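Technical annex B. To support the medicinal chemistry partners, we prepared a structural model of the target in complex with PMV, based solely on the information shown next.
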Amino acid sequence: MTRSALAVARPNIALIKYWGKRDRDRNLPATGSLSLTLSGMSTRTRVTFRDDLPQDHLVLDGQLASPEAHARVIRVLDQVRRLSGITTPAEVFSDNDFPTAAGLASSASGMAALAVAASRAAGLDLDLGTLAGLARMGSGSAPRSLLGGLVWLPRGEDPEGLDCVPQCLHPPEEVPWGLVMAWTGRGPKAVGSTDGMEHTRLSSPYYDAWLDQSRRDLEQALVHARALDLSALGPLVEANAFAMHACALAARPPLRYWNGTTLAVMDQVLVLRRSGLRGWMTIDAGPHVKVLCPREDAETWAEALARVPGVLEVRQEVPGPGVEAAP
Ligand code: PMV
């Protein structure tokens, strides 16, 4: 018997970051987060349960999955098998139309697409909370990519994560903002998010301060996000990203995701802002800089950031939809 389903999901960029886990086994976040799902990049994942396969077979971007990616995917597939009673192996083909694992949230779109494709291939019609739990087994930020637009993922208090379910604050068509991404390096990041968070938790003297600050940032950010007040939200977004990196930089040994071009782009952002342009930067576990700005200013930001020496490519993004399933 063969059962197959396809799903398409987009990356999301955190405006208020998740950095740290409250439960490693269940992959539950120590902080709530706020994000914007993008539109111009996507992961397409097809899952087929086949009883003629000797074992699970995973092909990511045309190549056999790395042991680390393999382990994450299997966690999601095993959970789908538990929920559905299916015992056969699965074949997974997943393709990103953007670079994998370079601080561009490919794990979020990949795991959101996998959760939906695998559960539908297994004949399950899951609610959002259960899908979020599935996606989270692969990546903590993945539940946010299930939804479009401006998304809040609460930290939750429930030990099983039942209240760690994403909520859409505004669908993509209501959010008049753009995100300009300046790519400052190629290839996978040196330290993945899971290891980076854990290293930070265990060795940064600022970890507890980060958790406190992040909770306060999120509280305020939710008010401004609901009001779509970019001038109030932007400075919080920027400060929150720098606080996350400050906490990671203080780990021992330090965790530094930036390169020289990252700093040059930061300088340029400040120069442009002083000249009156509205836009605020955020940086994930990688060297790229993303600027949140009014949609009508995205072109101006993109042109200016493309001129910074060392910037490889600049991409303009607008808010995009949540995960989409196909048969
Ligand atoms: O979901 P992960 O394990 O890829 O971690 C995401 C970490 C950050 O991108 C740095 C922050 C976030 O909230 O997306």
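Notes passed to the chemistry partners:
The chain has two domains: 2-174, 177-317.
Residues 207-226 form the longest helix (20 residues).
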